[in-house]
Specification:
The chain is of the alpha/beta class. The chain is 36% helix and 18% strand. It is built from 12 helices and 8 strands. The protein has helices at residues 10-17, 19-27, 60-71, 82-85, 91-101, 159-169, 188-203, 221-236, 258-262, 271-281, 317-329, 354-371; strands at 111-120, 123-132, 139-145, 172-177, 209-219, 244-247, 306-313, 334-343. It is globular and about 50 Å long. Pfam families: Abhydrolase_3 (PF07859). One of its GO terms (molecular function) is sterol ester esterase activity. Residues 1-21 form the signal peptide.
């Protein structure tokens, strides 16, 4: 994915869209307490054109981000090979350009970041560790898995979500750069995800973490990975996460659900892209029915309390609701919340999109309660 803006300073970029940054961003001034935001001074982003046909209910701030993303003129991901697709602009690029154009102040980060390579079967994966600057720990730990359909994106593209959670929860966040497809086919990403979690369980104390307080969080493909980590922990009889937050997770293989039909042409994720991602990650399409991909077919009993966040204008909306129902049927405590007028990938846009700020705050609230 294109990270020309992010490579300059990953810390700055992360803070720019994190929840703690929202207050400064929304108010265009420096404030350290995001709960004290004066919503009357939020920078109002106004779209240039009418709402798109695929999203008539879209919020103006969300539409402005989508318009900026379209302005780059990139070719549709589903028409590209993976190497080219990874060079496309991302929603994060759009947010960062809008932040710059609207002179939104970026506050100082409240966390330090370090990188580490950890051993996994067949190689190594990189993790980025976010550690609160204030306090000595041990802090609760969140293992975070980014989105991108198992094929695109990286830690920089999803820096905002990881850092926002670290700052709001006052937790160590370990963001995992699992290996991508098609270079690494199914179930490589799933195996990497669990290996990283297992590493955190064994090494939490060395990163100022509390080994008794570990949760998992993931977005999209990462939401699928996070749930699979909980399942694998149960099966392998190691410590199960105390909580899981699944943000618009990939949870089943049927691309003819109502939300797939309604939002087949949505941006930044559409039905064609989901087919492209599936084809790139799986060796055969039969694997789409594997419970690791189709979580609704998995044994979900005994999983940790779960928070599911969905977006209205998203082909994966129904994946989230179906998974919530299946988890509840399996006796798992589930809290879920849908955010109207926003699209897939909205969660990391808290500096610009009010619904993203609310969703991050909701996730943080759920995690803090679990860590108590």
């Amino acid at each position: 994915m294109k990270t020309r803006l992010l490579k300059i300073s990953s810390a700055v970029c992360a803070v720019a869209i994190s929840v703690s940054a929202c207050t400064s961003g929304d108010k265009a001034s420096t404030t350290t307490d995001s709960t004290m935001a004066d919503t009357s001074k939020v920078v109002a982003l106004k779209p240039a054109g009418p709402a798109p046909d695929w999203g008539k209910t879209i919020k103006p701030e969300m539409q402005t981000v989508i318009e900026k993303l379209a302005s780059y003129g990139d070719k549709p991901i589903e028409t590209l090979d993976p190497a080219a697709a990874r060079k496309n602009h991302t929603p994060t690029d759009a947010v960062m350009d809008l932040v710059k154009e609207n002179n939104i102040t970026i506050p100082a980060p409240k966390v330090d970041t370090t990188g580490k390579d950890i051993d996994v079967a067949g190689g190594k994966v990189h993790v980025r560790i976010y550690t609160p600057k204030e306090g000595n720990g041990p802090f609760p730990v969140i293992v975070y898995y980014h989105g991108g359909g198992f094929v695109i994106a990286d830690l920089d593209v999803y820096n905002a979500s990881a850092q926002g959670l670290a700052e709001q929860v006052n937790a160590v966040v370990v963001s995992v750069a699992y290996r991508l497809a098609p270079e690494n086919k199914f179930p490589t990403a799933h195996n990497d995800a669990f290996a990283a979690y297992e590493w955190v369980v064994k090494n939490a104390a060395s990163i100022k973490g509390n080994p008794a307080k570990i949760a998992v969080v993931g977005e999209s493909a990462g939401g699928n990975l996070a749930a699979n980590v909980s399942i694998a922990a149960r099966e392998k009889k190691i410590m199960i996460p105390v909580h899981e937050v699944l943000v618009y997770p990939i949870a089943q293989a049927n691309m003819n659900t109502e939300s797939y039909k309604l939002y087949a042409n949505a941006k930044p994720l559409n039905k064609a892209m989901m087919g492209w991602f599936t084809e790139k990650y799986l060796t055969t399409m039969i694997e789409a029915q594997n419970p690791k991909i189709s979580l609704v077919n998995a044994n979900l009993k005994g999983l940790p309390p779960t928070t599911i966040i969905t977006a209205e204008i998203d082909p994966l909306h129904d994946d989230g609701t179906m998974l919530a129902n299946k988890l509840s049927d399996a006796g798992v405590k589930v809290n879920s919340r849908n955010y109207e007028g926003v699209t897939h990938e909205f969660f990391g846009m808290a500096i610009l999109v009010p619904e993203a700020k609310a969703a991050q705050a909701y996730a943080a609230e759920q995690l803090k309660a679990a860590f108590k």
